[in-house]
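Quick start: read one record
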Amino acid sequence: MIRTIKTTSLMTATGLAAFAFMQPAMALDAQTFLDRIEAVYAVMGYDMSFGEASLSGDTITVDGVTINMAGMDPMALDAELTFSGVVENDDGSYFADSLTTPDLDLEFGDEHTGQLTLVDMVAEDLWLPPEGDTSAEALVQLIGRMATGPLTVTRDGAEVIKIAGMEAVSEFAYDADETLESINSDVAITDIWADLSTLGEEEPEAGAIVEALGLTRISGNITQSVNWSMADGRMVFEESKLDFADIGALNFTADISGFTLDMLDKIYAMQASDLDPMSEEAQAQQMMAGMEIAQALSIGATSLRYDDAGLAPKLLDLFAAQSGVERAEFVDSLKAMLPAMIAESGMSALNDVVVPPVSAFLEDPQNLEVAINPPSPTSVLVLAAAAANPAGLIQALGLTVTANSKTK
């Protein structure tokens, strides 16, 4: 059964939640609500155990939760969890406006006193499918938005890390039959700031390099935007960018098809298996699943691009100084080494693709991009088989390396 409350934007979600309160709804039971959460998330490999719960109107308050995952130590959140605006719908599904937790204020460290604070943590537009529906189509619609306010880390009272906020938003689109059609997801970690001036106290060599590069204080943002179409499993990474002032921007884009809900169902089934992950049977299942995924996934246009904002010239100057030569001489030596390095890799076909643009970037570091653009989307399994012939693989991938492009 599909999600009955459509989320096309945060404003729409708020309006629909308000509308839901005016509709007939089944009587809430706090423990049944928590049992549903545990059952739904168990399919994704989370073994959750909630503390005591109480109900007041449409608000459910829970005394903490412990989460277990295979191969990991248990994680206990010893804090009050508040689910607000909870509604049980006629079909047995649940909707909640939000989940909030108290602000974090943690102290850590022995030699130096560290403190971490994180405020305004919230998850919004929460939905739980009816009992028994743990299909991938249902599971990908569980949360509409997660966000926090500022995060601050101090060392002996001085700020060393600050983040203005973190947010992940998913917008769900449906067809006329209310079947999930696509998901657009955006992630933003904004106004990241770090003071690296004390790094030398713990790591003298690393601290000296940071000082030489003028990176004692850094600031930037991390953003990502992904659109996922259900029909063909096409997932387009429109942007996955790390962008830091006076350093540079690293951006990854990709067009991948074949990541369907059916495939996700199989992955969830494997995660929920009772088999010992280290057993031969479990490893055989994982290998078969990996082969199936490699056959189903196809790669289209994909790129990784670096736009310099000051880091590359500083690195070249630093390494040249360490070598006791001028930067121009150091760059010439690197350019001379490139063909030999490629030859040692056994992929001489890369020489004409890599050497000219990398040489141009070393001479004038502006931007460097590695991209693939197959004539048609090609499965990962086929590409893996083609790797035995590097020249053929380069052609199959449509591999290009470009430097100092005028367009982004």
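The chain has twelve helices and 22 strands.
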